[in-house]
Amino acid sequence: SYQECWYNSIVLLKSNDGGRSFTRIPEESPVAGAAFRYEELQGMPRGFFGPTNILRDGDYLYTIIFTTGGEGQKRGNCLFRTRNFPDDASWEYWTGTGFYPSRSNPYARPIEKVPGCEPLPGLAGRVWSIRRHRQSGLFLATVGMQSLNAAAGTIGISASTDLKEWSPPFPLFSLSLIWSRNCKDTTRYSYPSLIDLNSLDRNFSDIGDSAEIYMTELKVTNCGATLERNLVRFSISVTVPESAPSEQR
What we know:
- The strands form four sheets. Strands 1, 4, 5, 6, 7, 8 and 9 form a seven-stranded mixed sheet that branches. The chain has a five-stranded mixed sheet with strand order 13-12-11-10-15, with no helix packed on it. Strands 14-16-17 form a three-stranded antiparallel sheet, with no helix packed on it.
- The chain is mostly beta strands.
- The mean pLDDT is 89.
- The chain is built from no helices and 17 strands.
- Helices cover 0% and strands 40% of the residues.
């Protein structure tokens, strides 16, 4: 099972032909990688997985990347940023007190001891997209949550004023998600992303008071998700009470 030996890093790719093809930026280190080495019998996925879209705030570009943790690194969703996107050496992650360069090599001798990234409080499950609400300025994260043996999971929205502290997720839908083990599933869902087709940004980084949640619907056969998939969407409304304190919005 590849799940038992999956060791994952996030790297940079570039395209010179409008996205028709991509090549690896030839640098030595990934944007996000484990600070420990691969183990043949590790028994589970380890490393960093599933970065969100990249969103600009001021002079920095931000993304949220999930890590399974291990060897001193906590499991959860971590915040990464850069001033210079193509330069992998410019990326850094939030440690809870400040940002630390993410360029490290666990295969150096001796192994470099580095602080781990601090999982963002309030962001349960996996984060798939981050957007900024045009009217309020709040950051909104689309999250998916489901324990392995639960009958269904939840797609929700968390809010933040600074990308570091997040509200508990507001539930939107109860659906079986891609990592469900419920053999009664006929469909499962993954990759929920909040998109406003009237966005003012070419990368759809902002949303207004109405938007859609786009997801991949996966057909399930013999208790496993198949490659028969559909793109689906659900309309939602976004309301931020003007009278609410910013930390409660």
